User: Fold this.
Amino acid sequence: MSNSYDVIILGSGPGGYVAAIRAAQLGLKTAIVERENLGGICLNWGCIPTKALLRSAEIFHHMKHAADFGLAAEKISADIDAVVKRSRGVAKQLNQGVTHLMKKNKITVHMGEGKLIAPGKLIVNADGKSEELSAKNIIIATGARARDLPFAPADGKRIWTYRHAMVPPEMPKKLLVIGSGAIGIEFASFYNDMGAEVTVVEMMDRIVPVEDADISTFLEKSLVKQGMKILTGAGVEALKASANGVSAKIKTRDGKTADHDFTHCIVAIGIVPNSENIGLEMLKVETDRGHIKTDGMCRTNVPGIYAIGDITAPPWLAHKASHEGVIAAEAIAQSLGNKDVHPHAMDVRNIPGCTYCHPQVASVGLTEAKAKEAGYEVRVGNFPFIGNGKAIALGEAEGFIKTVFDAKTGELLGAHMVGAEVTELIQGYTVGKQLETTEAELMQTVFPHPTLSEMMHESVLSAYGRALHI
Amino acid sequence: MPIELKMPALSPTMEEGTLARWLVKEGDSISSGDLIAEIETDKATMEFEAVDEGVIGKILVTEGTDGVKVGTVIATIISDDEDAEVSAKPAAEPVKSAEIVQMASPPPAPVPAAVSAKSGDRVIASPLARRIAADKGVDISTLSGTGPKGRIVKADVEAAGQGAPAALASATVTPAPAAAAPVSADENIPHSVTKLSNMRKTIARRLTESKQQVPHIYLTVDIRLDALLKLRAELNDSLQSRGVKLSVNDMLIKALGLALVQVPKCNVSFGGDTLISYERADISVAVSIPNGLITPIIAGAEAKPLSTISTEMAELAARAKEGKLQPHEYQGGTASLSNMGMFGIKQFEAVINPPQAMIMAIGAGEKRPYVVDDSLQIATVMSATGSFDHRAIDGADGAQLMKTFKELVEKPLGLVA
Assistant:
């Protein structure tokens, strides 16, 4: 078997393995290099297993409220180890799925640690052995890892990253979560539902700071009602782990500093790109604070080298990585003579973001504040879950759907939702934005009744003073 | 096996074009390098060169058909030992021919604002693009799209009003009246109806936009040409051995370039809520071509020697007349120059080419009575009129430019220093 390929992909996460499949579909001789598990972080230690955990939490939540629905359930309990075991099983199933997809598409898998050694040449190290591979094109998809607190790196015992939080050695009693982005808030929500006493510390003046301000306000109120303690505009100045707990020195918004004791702490303060020791410096690939710089076709400054996913610019989302994987594979196929592919750069404003805490959050496009900052005159629509029949019937009357339109052209600039199942609803607005809808087409679309999705229609009507059910 | 001749892509972004003219007919022998057809887009006309050898089998798309998608089979070529009839294949997609279009056009129905009445063809555009086009009074059927499968999207409509990428114009644009509805001819007056080429439609659209959206002011000066004509003769004498012959226009291009750099307030573009000030003068020079007008650009005219300007202009004008200019050679520019002197026009006001903010219109140089030191003499004088975008340029600055231009022409040694 020759070690020469049309394209080699370094990393098999949602960016890498999708790029490999697309490349294979386009008839390119493809290889993929993976140092840990096929499917990368997303499938094995990220998106997927956390959704499995959150599902257990969701069902536990419903079990606790069984009486509300005319049902009886006694001796309700949760076994954290069993919950974790299920999530590991889900991860394993998907990992096997990716293995099967690689085989089906005849993509050669090289397990080991890969590194660029020269233009078009990669070396893969595994079990003390080295193998040299060559390719006309290389896609770097090595992803990212959790950022540590500089003064208190994760130890896996008392101070956790997302990875430890997914396979906890024990159920935390008092949990400190540092950082309220999607990862922090999802774990806070999970552990809160599972019975821990949770405190969230966020440096910015509101939680989930990338979302619309109205979402942050609503979510905070809801989480506090569920028993969480939330400190915004606050920072952890020191963190000390001991045999049976962790002590944090927290400076709150009022400027006062105090010591607080917890049993465990999850650090979710951002990511660090995996750009060390893969040969970037030697090949003079340009980076910006560790992230590889790319253009709309995922090309780096070095011809023949592409980069996708978390190793590049934000948003650091799996679906963005996957689409970049497709773009890079098509751009490579085009460069090799394929005249039937037409890769198109993605519009960042059309990439949705979802947070799977309870209640869920989902959004796409500009927040109201960012739209106004950009100079738009806006029309804003808002529809609360309490006005929707299905939401009430489900017992999920908490939430709202907000839409932001350009008053001049009717362009849908952004949509922001919080409440049950909104992560499944957001695709409707995303499809609309991709097709360059105006409010007219959305108003003319017939949404099915009774569904939560009708609120998407009502929110658009609301933006134009025509909401029917509120 | 017959070789299929497919509609070529003349540029990486071309999705469709007009098969303007066949240069061969069925049964003609062709060899590699022969010119087979003229393909037209809204930007230029290019000649389609044969790659293969053989005999033209069947012509599948008639002359004058537009909207021919790149990749459509337009003709077949057979190698010498095959039979034309046997090898002809019906076109893969239904193709509308020019004759059918002509029959359908009179009398045209009134055009609803946002939808194009492009010979019954549906214009593929996003809802947002349609609405913005309607608000801006842009005829969406004249645009080419960069969306999936050539769909016209918002970005294409926004780029339509601007030659160069200007800042997002957040100034309130009062919705312009919809693109003028086609006029139906009075059947009692003998007439003929010709379908406009993409170039003519684009010219019409851009001129309308300019007159509707740019407040023009006009400033005229009379300029004595005697010194310039004398210098030109002397220079051409010296340049003969280098094969260069300067025209008056070449020298006026340089003069305008220098004037703009000396009065930079006139070398600008109105950007909605910004003013773009250019740091060099790229002069778009109006060149008349068969069936239209195009403006090849002399970049950095203020710094180029006259002989360079002359050689470049000659080369660009020749290729312009053949429709062979590359987009970067006629799109852009910071100001324009238009000369109607050769037609004997005494003085005229030209239409500004947005996003530029000025255009200099040159009239005929003619012997006129001229007062010099209180005595009446005869001088060769031409009238030059500058049209200025009053949103970007004040009257006083426009006047300063005209004064500077006049001085450079009347004291022409400054053009060679």
Summary: Chain B touches chain A through twelve residues (CB under 8 Å).
